[in-house]
């Protein structure tokens, strides 16, 4: 006995099949074949014959469509899977009002697809040439910026697991067949890649012959080099409707008479532009801003990471402590860094992001004198206090007020129930929120051999504090600060107002000024 | 004691049974005594002065200048030359308040 939802899905599929029958489709229980009227750009009214399959993904994905006969002599080019299925809709189409659930609109879309194919897909900007080829499991890395002026033969580098192939910028002369054929090609002449710009291709690359054609005058050269065993890869730059695309191809030599086979690798640009594409708006304006993070324990380590990812490259990390096994569960740096100074562990972790960390400095010291505190503020665009140390915070806050330079202090209170960030100095009319009263509680545990009590703040609460601190810090670094002097997030509702509701608290002066 | 030294001279600590004679007259000694008395009063006044800047003016007056013309006792950075206190931004009450209060963790 099938459940109600299974019956509902079956009913929707059957209704759709029956409706296609009404449009003249024959149904053998598996495949529906029928006519699709469409209008050629030259005005002719044509009828194509298509095969439709409704699979188990329906209605969360459209039925699959293959063209049996377009109704004229028509080359089917773009927007097709390698198996011939048409790509009719983007994956972001809303399922709730999906056009493929209504057979009339579904057939209209197929007709429209044929008309666009006949017109050569004008203005189409989908850069997905790899979709038309069998998949090669290796990933190909290249630096688009470094390769901007490179064309022809270059060397490649493959990692130990043969999983990653890097297209280097090292040019290599085009190899020729060895005089004594049985000696084979020297190793240095093997595993090369061909880099070229193929302009705006009129059709996809489906196989060896279409690749050679797409390469134009380079085609015969690449044909020779691949058959010779010199070139294993191609990195082809192309344009589609104003968009720039790059496709990475991997070749297998065929037999003496057979053509090589072509596979498409997932390819990825390693340039700084691409690496920072997801770093948030304005991240490039933060690269020359300098921030000192005093205290890189749980909050400070994740905060340094968040600032670095947001674009701040000039980071000074200060903390006298070393990373202990008990720290790791709540700290950015992992088990491999135990025993290192926390500042060095954080820097090592940042270096794993693949960006330049030469502008990240680490000092195994805190801030102990007012002169040091003033110097730190004078030497950086922002100082972040993540010490939760009464003396250090008081001194840095005082130094910020004396120098007029910005400082943000971050902490968690009540074992992580409250996260808080305060910015100094106060601007005209501003006030910080009141202190959160400390509540009596059972004594905190202590780690054996380590003097201070261990806060029961959970790791996820640390991230809340980091988020608040980062918002204040980035607000300050943008040069147009708009946030109030305190952000306080009640994570767990407390008995005493105003902390008895979860959510963000900000000073009343800011509420009034932003009203 | 003093008149005897004035007549016989001070015992020379480098040569046994010798004295160091002085040509100072009794009037000179009286003048010197008055000056030492004046300096002692000034030193006492400086020591008893509760305000560091006013005290510093007295110490400067007492110690004068070196043979090179340098003032022996420098005024503290937070004092004006007339003994008044400069306006400074010291660590006043409230300037070191941690807004979040206590019981913090980071």
Which descriptors apply to this entry?
heterodimer; A: 515 residues; alpha/beta; eight-stranded mixed beta sheet; seven-stranded mixed β-barrel; 19 strands; B: 106 residues; mainly alpha; 3 helices; elongated
Count of helix runs of chain B: 3
Give a count of the beta strands of chain A, DSSP E runs of length 2 or more: 19
Shape of chain B: elongated
Strand fraction of chain B equals 5-15%
User: Based on helices, strands and strand pairing, what is the structural class of chain A?
Assistant: alpha/beta
How many helices of chain A? The count is: 11
Outline the low-pLDDT stretches of chain B: none
Major sheet: arrangement of strands of chain B = 1-2
Largest sheet of chain B: 2 strands, antiparallel
Ends of chain A: how far apart? 60 Å
* Average of the residue pLDDT scores of chain A: 94
Largest sheet: number of strands, sense, barrel closure of chain A: 8 strands, mixed
Q: What is the succession of H and E elements of chain B?
A: HEEHHE
What value does the Rg of chain A take, in angstroms? 31 Å
Largest interface, chains and sizes: A-B, 38 and 14 residues
Radius of gyration from the alpha-carbon trace of chain B, in angstroms: 25 Å
Order of strands across the biggest sheet of chain A?
14-13-12-15-16-17-18-19
Outline the structure in words.
The complex is a heterodimer of chains A (515) and B (106). Chain A is an alpha/beta fold and 515 residues long. Chain A is built from eleven helices and 19 strands. Chain A has helices at 4-22, 103-119, 208-214, 219-228, 272-275, 298-309, 342-351, 370-379, 390-403, 459-477, 508-514, and strands spanning 26-27, 31-39, 45-53, 64-69, 135-142, 152-158, 164-171, 192-197, 231-240, 243-252, 261-269, 290-294, 314-318, 360-363, 382-385, 407-413, 418-424, 486-490, 503-505. In chain A, the strands form three sheets. In chain A, strands 14-13-12-15-16-17-18-19 form an eight-stranded mixed sheet, with helices on both faces. In chain A, α6 links the parallel β12 (290-294) and β13. Chain A is globular and about 80 Å long. Chain A starts with a helix and ends with a helix. In chain B, 40% of the residues lie in helices and 6% in strands. Chain B has three helices and three strands; from the N terminus they run αββααβ. Chain B has a two-stranded antiparallel sheet. In chain B, a hairpin with a 7-residue loop joins β1 (10-11) and β2. Chain B is elongated and about 80 Å long. Chain B starts with a helix and ends with a strand. The model of chain B has no long low-confidence stretch (mean pLDDT 87). At the A-B interface, α6, α9 and β16 of A face β3 of B. β16 (407-413) of chain A pairs antiparallel with β3 (104-105) of chain B.
């Amino acid at each position: 006995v099938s459940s109600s939802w299974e019956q509902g899905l079956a009913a929707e599929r059957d209704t759709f099949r029956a409706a296609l029958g009404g449009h003249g489709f024959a149904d053998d229980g598996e495949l529906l074949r029928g006519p699709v009227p469409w209008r050629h750009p030259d005005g002719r009214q044509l009828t194509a014959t298509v095969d439709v399959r409704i699979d188990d993904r329906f209605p969360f994905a459209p039925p699959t469509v293959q063209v049996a006969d377009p109704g004229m002599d028509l080359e089917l080019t773009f927007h097709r899977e390698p198996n011939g299925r048409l790509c009719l809709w983007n994956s972001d189409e809303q399922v709730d009002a999906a056009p493929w659930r209504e057979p009339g609109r579904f057939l209209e879309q197929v007709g429209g697809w044929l008309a666009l194919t006949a017109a050569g897909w004008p203005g189409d900007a989908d850069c997905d040439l790899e979709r038309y080829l069998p998949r090669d499991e290796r990933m190909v890395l290249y630096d688009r910026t470094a390769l901007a002026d490179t064309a022809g033969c270059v060397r490649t580098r493959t990692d130990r697991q043969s999983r990653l192939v890097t297209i280097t910028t090292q040019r290599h002369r085009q190899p020729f067949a060895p005089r004594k054929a049985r000696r084979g090609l020297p190793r240095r002449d093997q595993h090369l890649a061909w880099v070229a710009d193929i302009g705006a291709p009129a059709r996809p690359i489906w196989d060896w012959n279409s690749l050679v054609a797409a390469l134009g005058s380079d085609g015969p050269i690449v044909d020779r080099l691949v058959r010779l065993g010199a070139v294993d890869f191609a990195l082809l730059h192309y344009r589609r409707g104003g968009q720039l695309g790059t496709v990475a191809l991997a070749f297998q030599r065929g037999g003496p008479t057979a053509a090589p086979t072509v596979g498409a690798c997932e390819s990825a640009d390693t340039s700084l532009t691409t690496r920072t594409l997801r770093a948030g708006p304005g991240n490039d304006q933060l690269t020359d801003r300098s921030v000192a993070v005093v205290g890189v324990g749980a909050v400070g380590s994740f905060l340094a990471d968040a600032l670095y990812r947001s674009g701040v490259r000039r980071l000074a990390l200060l903390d006298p402590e070393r990373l202990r096994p008990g720290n790791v569960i709540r700290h950015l740096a992992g088990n491999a860094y135990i025993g290192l100074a926390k500042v060095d562990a954080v820097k090592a972790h940042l270096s794993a992001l693949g960006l330049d960390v030469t502008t990240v400095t680490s000092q195994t010291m805190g801030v102990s004198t007012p002169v040091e505190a003033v110097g730190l503020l004078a030497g950086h665009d922002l100082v972040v206090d993540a010490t939760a140390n009464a003396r250090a915070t008081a001194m840095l806050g005082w130094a910020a007020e004396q120098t007029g330079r910005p400082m943000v202090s971050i902490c968690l209170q009540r074992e992580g129930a409250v996260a808080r960030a305060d910015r100094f100095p106060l601007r005209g009319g501003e006030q910080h929120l009141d202190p959160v009263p400390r509540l009596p509680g059972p004594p905190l545990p202590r780690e054996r051999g380590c003097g201070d009590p261990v806060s029961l703040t959970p790791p996820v609460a640390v991230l809340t504090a980091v988020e608040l601190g980062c918002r204040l810090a980035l607000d300050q670094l943008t040069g147009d600060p708009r946030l109030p002097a305190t952000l306080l997030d009640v994570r767990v509702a407390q008995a005493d107002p105003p902390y008895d509701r979860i959510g963000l608290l900000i000073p009343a002066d800011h509420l009034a000024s932003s009203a | 004691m003093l008149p005897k030294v004035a007549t016989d001279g001070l015992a020379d600590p480098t040569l046994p049974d010798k004295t160091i004679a002085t040509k100072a007259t009794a009037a000179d000694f009286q003048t010197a005594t008055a000056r030492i008395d004046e300096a002692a009063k000034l030193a006492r006044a400086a020591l008893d002065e509760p305000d560091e800047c006013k005290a510093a003016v007295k110490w400067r007056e007492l110690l004068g200048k070196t043979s090179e013309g340098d003032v022996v006792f420098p005024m503290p950075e937070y004092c004006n030359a007339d003994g008044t206190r400069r306006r400074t931004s010291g660590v006043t009450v409230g300037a070191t308040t941690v807004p979040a209060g206590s019981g913090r963790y980071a």
